[in-house]
Amino acid sequence: MNQIAYNFADSIKSNRSRFILAAIGFAPLLWNYGGMLLSRPAYQFFPLALVAAGMLAWRSAGQMEQPLSPGNLLATRIFGLTTGLLFTLACLLWSPWLGYVTGLLAMVAALWGFGGRPLVRLFLPSGLMLLTILLPPLGWDEILTLWLRTVTVNSSSALLDWLKVIHVQDGNVLLLPGQKLLVEEACSGINSFILGNAFCLFWLLWQRRPLSWLLWSITGASGMVMLGNVFRITAGATASYYWQLNLLGGRTHEIFGLLLLLGYCGLIISFDQMLLFFTQSFLGPKANETSIHNMPAPPVGQPAAGRFFKGSRFGFKYAGAFLALVGISAWILRVMAGNNHGAANLPGFTSPPEYKLTLPASVAGWQRTDADTGNLVLAQVFGVRSRIWHYQRDGGEAMVAVDYPLPGFHNVKRCYMNAGWKVQNEESVGQGGGQTDLHAIKLTMKLSMTYAMVLHSVMNDQGAWLLDANIPGHKPDLWRKLFGDEPMLPKPVQTGYRIQLITGGYEPLSEAEMTKARELYFSVRPLLAAQLVNQLQPSAK
């Protein structure tokens, strides 16, 4: 080990207790952030991203060839104070997302304190890899998912026309003779899109490519993934139509997706080699000089690594103890206040009971029918158990549905959007001059030539109606909208039971039609809620 590497390692060793305390402080929030990533299929590759970041960091640590000098004192203090304030805020709001962002900032602060800008730049590749698993705020990943799904279905439908496959596109559903293919979230390409771009970034950083290559490579990788998913849907529909082969379900679908993923990786490497060939042919061997790895050497001076934590003049001698105290205290307070360790308390693996629910044959002028023909819309249900009733009135049709269990409040809007519906308006439902909140949400939607209205509410096992802070009229919470997290004093995670109504037709619903549907909904909702609560009580089991 050379003298400079020894100085750096010795500084880390002498401050290991502070780093351990800081890690303990961050552990609860980062653990919960890992749970958030696991709950999203598109980010379940995050352990691989952590391994890739570790590999890049290990290689960077072996490249230090000059004595290290601490960064600018003012910048060091700004980094440290900002980290402390953001970490305290993340604990108060119990925001794993903000905790992860603060963790990245803490690593930048430590690197700056040890070696200033040169050391931060040296470990920049590792930081870029960690950014690939940063969840975008404001639901941008959901917007990307819906856009990818729409592009995939539209492109696949055009190719199926060219292949003479008889089908009808209905939103995100491809209707084949005797078969319905719903392009789900995984098939939309969001999983392979994010993973493919993360692999592309790792390959560029590992091969020390210039930053100018990043735009070309990411664009190329994105295009490859999108074309690959169009091919998957088209091939699956074609195989089903001509040869009755199921390539879009079961183990075959998983193997097909894995082979495509391996193909994406091969194409990304091939595209990189093509860029390398052309740049070296026209620009010469010096084309890589703009790489972030080829940075100016750090200023030569006496080895001074570790002064950021050891020197009292920096004011952060007890930074590790502070982070540990705040982080562990916040976690203990959360456990005591909400009896919740932060992980989602989703329904258990055992199958929930199927409750006996009935509705009268005639309600608010509507007549119940057992016929399931001629209906223009289908209710989207998310729970393990569901029940649907059909009603008719004056030539109109409505469906009343109950589905459970749900992980607290679950907005059915996303289920309809995944099926291809375009939500034109979303609002809370009130009554009277004061617009008393009826704890229901109204959606007006459109799918191709079909228009629909949905009314839905979610209750807990005590019969209390749950609210969504993101819905207009339901007291919007900026922090929840930004980060999707709960505040410091959490409410116990509740199991949800949803009651919804959907009605529609080939023309926008008139006010009279919506009023009739509303009367039906608020007539059957209390009947179903009472039956659910009675059967949920311990005495009824």
pLDDT < 50 runs, ≥5 residues = 1-6, 295-315, 338-349, 372-377, 469-491
Number of strands: 11
Number of helical segments?
Answer: 15
Helix/strand order, N-terminal first = HHHHHHHEEEHHHHHEEEEHEEEHEH
How much helicity do the residues have? Answer: 40-55%
- What name is given to the CATH topology of the largest domain? Protein Transport Mog1p, Chain A
Radius of gyration: 28 Å
- Find the structural class using helix and strand composition: alpha+beta
| Biggest sheet record | 8 strands, antiparallel
Q: Termini distance?
A: 69 Å
Question: What share of the residues does DSSP label as strand, in percent?
Answer: 5-15%
CATH class of the largest domain: Alpha Beta
Total separate domains: 3
Shape descriptor reads flat
Strand order of the largest sheet: 4-5-6-7-11-10-9-8
Overall average residue pLDDT: 77
CATH architecture of the largest domain: 3-Layer(aba) Sandwich
Explain the layout of strands and helices:
Layout (H helix, E strand, L loop, with lengths): L2 H12 L1 H23 L7 H16 L11 H21 L2 H27 L1 H8 L8 H23 L5 E3 L2 E4 L2 E4 L7 H17 L6 H31 L6 H34 L23 H4 L8 H20 L23 E2 L2 E4 L15 E9 L2 E12 L5 H6 L3 E10 L4 E12 L2 E10 L18 H6 L11 E11 L5 H26 L5
Antiparallel strand pairs: 1-2, 2-3, 4-5, 5-6, 6-7, 7-11, 8-9, 9-10, 10-11
Helix pairs in contact: 2-5, 2-12, 3-6, 3-8, 4-5, 4-12, 5-6, 7-9, 8-9, 8-10, 9-10
Describe the structure.
The protein has 541 residues and is of the alpha+beta class. It has 3 domains: 3-135 and 311-338, no CATH class; 139-290, no CATH class; 362-540, Protein Transport Mog1p, Chain A (3-Layer(aba) Sandwich), CATH 3.40.1000. The chain is 51% helix and 15% strand. It is built from 15 helices and 11 strands. The chain has helices at residues 3-14, 16-38, 46-61, 73-93, 96-122, 124-131, 140-162, 190-206, 213-243, 250-283, 307-310, 319-338, 413-418, 478-483, 511-536; strands at 168-170, 173-176, 179-182, 362-363, 366-369, 385-393, 396-407, 422-431, 436-447, 450-459, 495-505. It has an 8-stranded antiparallel sheet with strand order 4-5-6-7-11-10-9-8. Strands 1-2-3 form a 3-stranded antiparallel sheet, covered by helices on one side. A hairpin with a 4-residue loop joins strand 8 (422-431) and strand 9 (436-447). Helix 4 (73-93) packs parallel to helix 12 (319-338). The chain is flat and about 85 Å long. The model is unreliable at 1-6, 295-315, 338-349, 372-377 and 469-491 (pLDDT under 50).
